[in-house]
Design a protein that fits this description.
By secondary structure, the protein is of the alpha+beta class. It has two domains: 78 residues, no CATH class; 260 residues, Beta-lactamase, CATH 3.40.710. It is 40% helix and 23% strand. The chain is built from ten helices and 13 strands. A hairpin with a 3-residue loop joins strand 10 and strand 11. The longest helix has 28 residues. The protein is globular, with a radius of gyration of 29 Å. The N and C termini lie far apart (68 Å). About 3% of the residues have low confidence.
Length: 346
């Protein structure tokens, strides 16, 4: 009898001990992590390692979720900062009188040339036109016509005044092919006149904090549409953050139909003006511009093989061909002469 009582006491003690261990593990498991701002790399990895060593079978599913949470926090905290290497290499020279390259995430300037000088930006204007247009909550399936007042010259959709075009197709054509009559038709579709639409463009830029950028026209076919390479890089970054705009700008060719009522009339093909989409560069977004006053203008977002991204702007090259060639050389030089190292947010 005494032997049986001893066994019962031992079993109860063991059960209590295991229960204490189990609840202690649960408490540790659900203890909130420190604020990400207080974490060092060592703390992050130690935290992951500690939780991966938890062996309680009943907690494995929740432990897996917690590990993923910690790893996500680690990735959000770590920032890769571009550092110059190959310092013995000569600085790159461009024929373009104005330009800049900045890291996408940190906005660190990696190269610049007269980047604060105000210049005509031609059709780079259309990035801001697109941002303002999207704020009007457009009906993408609505059809409208190009009218005589939309025909101002420069790049245009070759359609007649009887053909109807969907708002979506005009938007795509305005960005991919930089079609001026498509942009002006979109402006009309908002119910705003051109002056009030441009006013909204300038108000948007001012709210972003850009003091050296000003628009007088939504297409860019005006010598008074001005910005700097520095501000244009930051404006482009904002525009490329819009996924609708970003996905459109990397389409090589866009096909759509014009209509007469519900009847399809003919197919239109719009080719992207950005020739670098067919280059060796990995282009994530980009917009071209050209006018007699501005010469060649180009802004792109490019990515290297390690996933590091930059925004690059060139303004004022004499021809579009020179602009594309210089941009390709410049981007390759940046990726060859900078490497991105892990850093921590303060």
């Amino acid at each position: 009898m005494d032997c049986e009582k001893s066994k019962i006491i031992i079993l109860k003690s063991l059960a209590i001990f295991l229960a204490i261990i189990f609840f202690w593990q649960l408490i540790n498991l659900f203890t909130p992590l420190e604020s990400p701002a207080t974490y060092s790399k060592d703390k992050i990895y130690n935290s992951i390692l500690h939780r991966k060593n938890e062996t309680n079978i009943q907690s494995l599913s929740k432990l897996s979720i917690l590990i993923k949470q910690v790893e996500k926090e680690k990735n959000e905290i770590i920032i890769k900062e571009p550092i110059r290497i190959n310092k013995q290499n000569l600085e790159i020279e461009t024929m373009a009188p104005n330009g800049i390259v900045m890291d996408l995430k940190t906005e660190k300037i990696l190269w610049q040339k007269n980047s604060q000088e105000k210049k005509n930006i031609a059709s780079l204007t259309k990035l801001v036109s697109a941002l303002v247009f999207l704020e009007t909550n457009p009906d993408w399936e609505k059809k409208i016509k190009i009218i005589k007042e939309d025909e101002i010259g420069g790049a245009r959709l070759n359609v007649n005044f009887k053909e109807e075009i969907k708002i979506k197709d005009l938007f795509y054509a305005g960005l991919i092919g930089s079609k001026n009559n498509a942009i002006l038709a979109l402006v009309r579709s908002t119910g705003l006149n051109k002056e009030n639409f441009v006013k909204k463009m300038n108000e948007k830029i001012q709210k972003m904090g850009f003091k050296n950028t000003h628009f007088t026209n939504p297409t860019g076919l005006n010598s008074n549409n001005l910005s700097t390479a520095f501000e244009m890089a930051k404006i482009a970054k904002r525009a490329f953050e819009n996924q609708e705009i970003k996905k459109i700008l990397v389409i090589n060719n866009y096909n759509f139909y014009t209509f007469l009522g519900e009847k399809k009339i003919r197919e239109i093909i719009v080719k992207n003006t950005n020739e670098l989409l067919e280059s060796e560069l990995k282009i994530k977004a980009g917009k071209t511009g050209f006018s007699n006053e501005a010469n060649g203008c180009l802004v792109i977002q490019a990515e290297n093989e390690k996933g590091n991204e930059i925004i690059s702007v060139l303004l004022g090259n004499k021809t579009k061909e020179i602009n594309f060639k210089e941009m390709e050389i410049l981007v390759k030089w940046i990726f060859q002469n900078y490497e991105w190292t892990d850093g921590m947010q303060n």
